[in-house]
Every structure is written in C-alpha cells, then in structure tokens.
Amino acid sequence: LFPVFSQAREKARATTCLSNAKQIGTAHQMYGQDYDETLIPWFVPSGLPRNEYRDDLVSWVQNLQPYIKNGAPTRPPTTDFVGVPPNGMMRCPSFSEER
Q1: What are residue 58's DSSP bridge partners?
Q2: Rounded CA gap, 55 and 87, in Å?
Q3: Is residue 74 part of a domain?
Q4: Domain tally for the chain?
C-alpha cells in the first residue's frame, strides 16, 4: 500500500513542477509584452553596491518576480547570496541535490 502513496506523492510533485513551468513561461510572455517584444535579459545592473555576499546584478529570475503569482520565486536582491541556488517556484518539488 505504501508504494501507492509514494507514487501519488511523486505525481503531485510532477504536477506542481509542470504548473510552475507554465507560470514561468507565462511570465516570460508578459515581460515581452511589457518591453516591446524583447526577451528578458540574463542579468541587469541592480543599482546596489557589490560586496562579498551580493553581486551588483539582478538575474532574470528576479526580473520575473512581478509577473509570477503567489509570491516571489526567490529571495529579494538585497539578500541573494552568490552561489545560493534559487528556491520556490524556480525549483521543482521533487528535486534533490542529493540525487
């Protein structure tokens, strides 16, 4: 009986991942509509000073925040540490760094 629960849980995680990917794709389209059909840049200057914990650039993930419902997909730019992977919507629930 337990393998059935495990399979159902993994199916739910896969559905969540697919939903997140759809929202990210929709956010890309909305960004393009707002910025004259341009693609979102990989990085743009943040205006914040660079230090040992934070770069002076904002990534495409942070630029999509206004277009994604249900909260921010990652940490705010003021607390985003170099080398820390994204969380929330930008990572599928079944992803594990230990795999």
Answers
A1: 44
A2: 18
A3: yes
A4: 1
